[in-house]
Specification:
Layout lengths: L1 H23 L8 H16 L7 H24 L12 H9 L9 H29 L5 H31 L16 H5 L4 H18 L6 H25 L6 H22 L9 H20 L1 H5 L2 H19 L6
Helix pairs in contact: 1-2, 1-4, 2-3, 3-8, 3-9, 5-6, 6-11, 8-9, 9-10, 10-11
Length: 338
């Protein structure tokens, strides 16, 4: 426990010191390659910081918030991409907070936040508990593909639960909210619609740091939006490879990159097909479109997205950590059914 507390203190201190350096030093460089070069040490620090944690959960959160989101925000800060909101004209505290966390800038009604948070988080925790207990008790007897499917849902729920809990804590302390993690992706009627609903934090980050720069690099080219989409999916795939490595410490299998490139190509083909079919006016019934979309995501996810976690034994580590935590809680509060 002391080691974990020490790692957390080092993690927070490193972020604070690094972003203070960005605020006081890097901001003095003109935007562009000079400011970007001054940020290289910070990119390195934020990439290796999650490796200080040995447990899956804190490593995953540190990677998502710091290695991915904060590093990409600093890329926007370096080049002032799309009029980056991470400006040194703000106070140091605001600069650090907005850069280190995916925060909304608007204030939201406290009553609506509280009621929405309580209902959604309670339901998700119940489903999460059922799925974890299913894998723990019956995982060895279930079909491996079904287990992979369950792991996919666990990942989806964990992202939403962590985002909802973090948003609630932040709102209670500052009155600000985190950006939403997803927008009911299971209701998507196309792959393009699915990726516009799923993991919005990453989607928005890639839009500003990959997609839009590609459009600016190739103005007046009809194929530029398609190239921007493919580039975004490629970067997402490579970042997911790094994510799995940090969780498993195992060499990449490149299945993650294959998954995202497959989806990127399919999104491009889908967009071209929609445009060709009567100018995009023809469409499948929503029920059929949702069934095909979710079916494709599930099949490709089970085949390409989940296997790297299993091969790296991330699932084993996660379930072991859950069991250790639940045993610790039950020893103190035996009435809690964990």
């Amino acid at each position: 426990m002391e080691a974990r507390a020490k790692n957390f203190v080092i993690y927070v201190s490193s972020i604070t010191a690094s972003l203070s350096y960005c605020y006081f030093i890097s901001s003095k460089f003109p935007k562009g390659i000079y400011r970007f070069t001054s940020l290289v040490p910070v990119f390195y620090i934020f990439t290796v910081l999650p490796l200080r944690f040995s447990c899956v959960f804190p490593t995953a959160v540190a990677f998502s918030f710091t290695t991915w989101l904060t590093n990409f925000k600093l890329i926007r800060f370096a080049f002032d991409l799309d009029h980056s909101p991470y400006r040194p004209s703000d106070s140091l505290l605001r600069f650090i907070t907005v850069t280190a966390l995916p925060i909304k800038t608007r204030i939201t009604n406290s009553t609506s936040v509280k009621s929405r948070f309580q209902f959604k988080l309670g339901f998700q925790l119940l489903i999460l508990f059922i799925l974890v207990k299913t894998v723990l008790n019956y995982g060895n007897r279930l079909n491996p593909k079904l287990v992979s499917f369950i792991y996919g849902w666990l990942l989806f729920l964990l992202i939403d639960v962590v985002a909802a809990a973090s948003s609630a804590l932040l709102f209670l302390s500052t009155g600000l909210e985190l950006e939403p993690s997803s927008d009911e992706p299971y209701l998507a009627t196309s792959l393009q619609n699915f990726w516009g609903r799923w993991n919005l934090l990453v989607t928005n980050t890639l839009r500003h740091t990959v997609y839009k720069p590609v459009l600016l690099a190739f103005p007046n080219h009809k194929w530029a939006p398609l190239a921007g989409i493919l580039a975004s999916f490629l970067v997402s795939g490579l970042m997911h490879e790094l994510f799995v490595y940090q969780l498993s410490r195992a060499a990449p299998t490149w299945e993650m990159t294959s998954f995202f490139m497959l989806h990127g190509i399919c999104v491009v083909v889908e967009m071209i097909a929609k445009k060709a079919l009567t100018g995009g006016r023809w469409r499948l019934p929503d029920f059929v479109a949702r069934l095909l979309t979710v079916g494709f995501v599930v099949v490709t996810g089970v085949s390409l997205f989940v296997p790297p976690f299993i091969k790296g034994r991330v699932d084993v580590k996660m379930l072991k950590e859950y069991k250790s935590l639940s045993d610790s809680i039950k020893s103190k509060y035996p009435q809690i059914p964990l």
